[in-house]
């Protein structure tokens, strides 16, 4: 099922500078910023600059350069946050049953406490 990209979603508005964010890192491929409602001591969102609804859309339709840029960007953000040593969790919710609320692809980085075993 193809879901059209909504250019008025909150992360699109952040990317355009129409809404503020607490920025961690930015390059030509990604923007990373603190989650407005953190669920861990460190809770950062990494988004691609391209208009992709979800991981499903991104993995299918993004260019190799965008996919590489995004993947390396997530790793760079983890290094900036200095969570490589203690460790962290990456999560991406996809679609309705995946619990995705904002329809612009994003990866959550959770860190800063022992996160425990993987949960569904
Ligand atoms: P998901 O779509 O993966 O369920 O989660 C979306 C995440 O975006 C939530 O953790 C929520 O707190 C965060 N969020 C929603 N609106 C904003 C916003 O305007 N600014 C920031 N920084 N985070 C937001």
TrEMBL record:
One protein family per Pfam: HIT
Ranges of residues in domain HIT: 10-120
Motif Histidine triad motif, residue numbers: 104-108
InterPro entries for this protein: Histidine_triad_CS, Histidine_triad_HIT, HIT-like, HIT-like_sf
Catalytic machinery residues: 106
GO molecular function: catalytic activity
Family matches, as CDD domains: PKCI_related
Official protein name in the record: Histidine triad nucleotide-binding protein
Organism annotation: Novacetimonas pomaceti
Source organism phylogeny: Bacteria, Pseudomonadati, Pseudomonadota, Alphaproteobacteria, Acetobacterales
